[in-house]
Design goal:
This protein is mostly helical. The protein has three helices and two strands; from the N terminus they run αββαα. The N and C termini lie far apart (71 Å).
Length: 146
Protein backbone atom coordinates (compact mmCIF):
# COMPACT_ATOMS: atom_id res chain seq x y z
CA UNK A 1 0.00 0.00 0.00
CA UNK A 2 2.83 2.37 0.83
CA UNK A 3 4.43 1.67 -2.55
CA UNK A 4 1.24 2.65 -4.37
CA UNK A 5 0.93 5.84 -2.33
CA UNK A 6 4.57 6.75 -3.00
CA UNK A 7 4.15 6.07 -6.72
CA UNK A 8 0.97 8.17 -6.82
CA UNK A 9 2.68 11.05 -5.02
CA UNK A 10 5.66 10.79 -7.39
CA UNK A 11 3.33 10.86 -10.39
CA UNK A 12 1.44 13.89 -9.03
CA UNK A 13 4.71 15.66 -8.27
CA UNK A 14 6.03 15.07 -11.81
CA UNK A 15 2.78 16.44 -13.26
CA UNK A 16 3.06 19.55 -11.10
CA UNK A 17 6.66 20.15 -12.16
CA UNK A 18 5.90 19.66 -15.86
CA UNK A 19 2.91 22.00 -15.60
CA UNK A 20 5.13 24.73 -14.13
CA UNK A 21 7.72 24.32 -16.89
CA UNK A 22 5.23 25.23 -19.57
CA UNK A 23 5.19 28.93 -20.35
CA UNK A 24 1.89 30.50 -19.35
CA UNK A 25 -0.15 32.23 -22.01
CA UNK A 26 0.33 35.97 -21.77
CA UNK A 27 -2.84 37.89 -21.15
CA UNK A 28 -3.63 41.55 -21.32
CA UNK A 29 -6.60 43.66 -20.30
CA UNK A 30 -8.54 42.47 -23.34
CA UNK A 31 -7.75 38.79 -23.01
CA UNK A 32 -4.94 36.66 -24.43
CA UNK A 33 -2.28 38.50 -26.37
CA UNK A 34 -1.94 37.63 -30.01
CA UNK A 35 1.41 37.40 -31.69
CA UNK A 36 2.34 40.10 -34.13
CA UNK A 37 0.90 43.07 -32.28
CA UNK A 38 2.16 46.62 -32.53
CA UNK A 39 5.73 46.76 -33.86
CA UNK A 40 5.73 43.15 -35.05
CA UNK A 41 2.88 43.42 -37.49
CA UNK A 42 3.51 44.71 -40.98
CA UNK A 43 1.71 47.72 -42.35
CA UNK A 44 -1.53 46.80 -44.13
CA UNK A 45 -1.19 47.09 -47.88
CA UNK A 46 -3.61 49.24 -49.84
CA UNK A 47 -5.02 46.06 -51.37
CA UNK A 48 -5.77 44.51 -47.97
CA UNK A 49 -7.28 47.75 -46.72
CA UNK A 50 -9.53 47.93 -49.79
CA UNK A 51 -10.60 44.31 -49.39
CA UNK A 52 -11.43 44.84 -45.73
CA UNK A 53 -13.43 47.96 -46.49
CA UNK A 54 -15.20 46.21 -49.37
CA UNK A 55 -16.31 43.43 -47.04
CA UNK A 56 -17.29 45.89 -44.30
CA UNK A 57 -19.34 48.18 -46.55
CA UNK A 58 -20.36 45.64 -49.22
CA UNK A 59 -18.74 47.65 -52.02
CA UNK A 60 -19.05 46.85 -55.70
CA UNK A 61 -15.99 45.73 -57.66
CA UNK A 62 -15.72 49.18 -59.24
CA UNK A 63 -15.92 50.91 -55.86
CA UNK A 64 -13.34 48.52 -54.45
CA UNK A 65 -10.95 49.34 -57.32
CA UNK A 66 -11.43 53.08 -56.79
CA UNK A 67 -10.89 52.72 -53.04
CA UNK A 68 -7.74 50.67 -53.63
CA UNK A 69 -6.42 53.35 -56.01
CA UNK A 70 -7.11 55.99 -53.36
CA UNK A 71 -5.31 53.92 -50.70
CA UNK A 72 -2.34 53.41 -53.05
CA UNK A 73 -2.08 57.19 -53.54
CA UNK A 74 -2.24 57.69 -49.76
CA UNK A 75 0.49 55.08 -49.26
CA UNK A 76 2.75 56.75 -51.82
CA UNK A 77 2.16 60.12 -50.11
CA UNK A 78 2.94 58.62 -46.71
CA UNK A 79 6.16 57.07 -47.99
CA UNK A 80 7.22 60.40 -49.52
CA UNK A 81 6.50 62.32 -46.32
CA UNK A 82 8.36 59.76 -44.25
CA UNK A 83 11.39 60.23 -46.49
CA UNK A 84 11.05 64.02 -46.21
CA UNK A 85 11.10 63.84 -42.41
CA UNK A 86 14.34 61.85 -42.45
CA UNK A 87 15.78 64.21 -45.02
CA UNK A 88 14.76 67.21 -42.93
CA UNK A 89 16.47 65.78 -39.85
CA UNK A 90 19.66 65.20 -41.81
CA UNK A 91 19.50 68.72 -43.25
CA UNK A 92 18.94 70.19 -39.80
CA UNK A 93 21.90 68.28 -38.39
CA UNK A 94 24.12 69.38 -41.28
CA UNK A 95 23.03 72.99 -40.80
CA UNK A 96 23.70 72.76 -37.05
CA UNK A 97 27.18 71.33 -37.70
CA UNK A 98 27.97 74.14 -40.15
CA UNK A 99 26.81 76.80 -37.68
CA UNK A 100 28.84 75.20 -34.89
CA UNK A 101 31.96 75.13 -37.08
CA UNK A 102 31.52 78.81 -38.02
CA UNK A 103 31.00 79.70 -34.36
CA UNK A 104 34.16 77.80 -33.39
CA UNK A 105 36.20 79.63 -36.04
CA UNK A 106 34.99 83.00 -34.77
CA UNK A 107 35.57 81.98 -31.17
CA UNK A 108 39.10 80.83 -32.01
CA UNK A 109 39.88 84.29 -33.37
CA UNK A 110 38.59 85.87 -30.16
CA UNK A 111 39.92 83.61 -27.40
CA UNK A 112 43.01 82.03 -28.99
CA UNK A 113 44.11 78.40 -29.38
CA UNK A 114 44.85 77.61 -25.72
CA UNK A 115 41.47 78.69 -24.40
CA UNK A 116 39.79 77.15 -27.45
CA UNK A 117 41.28 73.76 -26.56
CA UNK A 118 40.00 74.14 -22.99
CA UNK A 119 36.57 75.16 -24.30
CA UNK A 120 36.40 72.16 -26.64
CA UNK A 121 37.40 69.80 -23.84
CA UNK A 122 34.64 71.21 -21.62
CA UNK A 123 32.14 70.86 -24.48
CA UNK A 124 33.17 67.24 -25.05
CA UNK A 125 32.74 66.52 -21.32
CA UNK A 126 29.26 68.11 -21.33
CA UNK A 127 28.30 66.07 -24.37
CA UNK A 128 29.54 62.88 -22.75
CA UNK A 129 27.53 63.55 -19.57
CA UNK A 130 24.43 64.37 -21.59
CA UNK A 131 24.73 61.13 -23.55
CA UNK A 132 25.15 59.17 -20.31
CA UNK A 133 21.98 60.75 -18.91
CA UNK A 134 20.04 60.07 -22.09
CA UNK A 135 21.14 56.44 -22.22
CA UNK A 136 20.37 55.90 -18.53
CA UNK A 137 24.02 55.95 -17.52
CA UNK A 138 25.54 54.37 -14.45
CA UNK A 139 25.22 57.45 -12.26
CA UNK A 140 21.69 58.84 -12.26
CA UNK A 141 21.08 62.50 -11.50
CA UNK A 142 21.25 63.21 -7.75
CA UNK A 143 17.94 64.02 -6.10
CA UNK A 144 17.57 67.54 -4.67
CA UNK A 145 17.72 67.70 -0.91
CA UNK A 146 15.05 69.62 0.99
Amino acid sequence: MKKIAILALGFIFSLAVSAQDQTPQQTGERGPKREGRQGDRPQMTPQLRAERLAKQLDLTADQKTQVQTLFEKQEANRQKKQGDVKKSREEMKAQFDEELKAQDEELLKIIGPEKMKKYQDARAERLKKMQERMSGGDNPRPQPQN
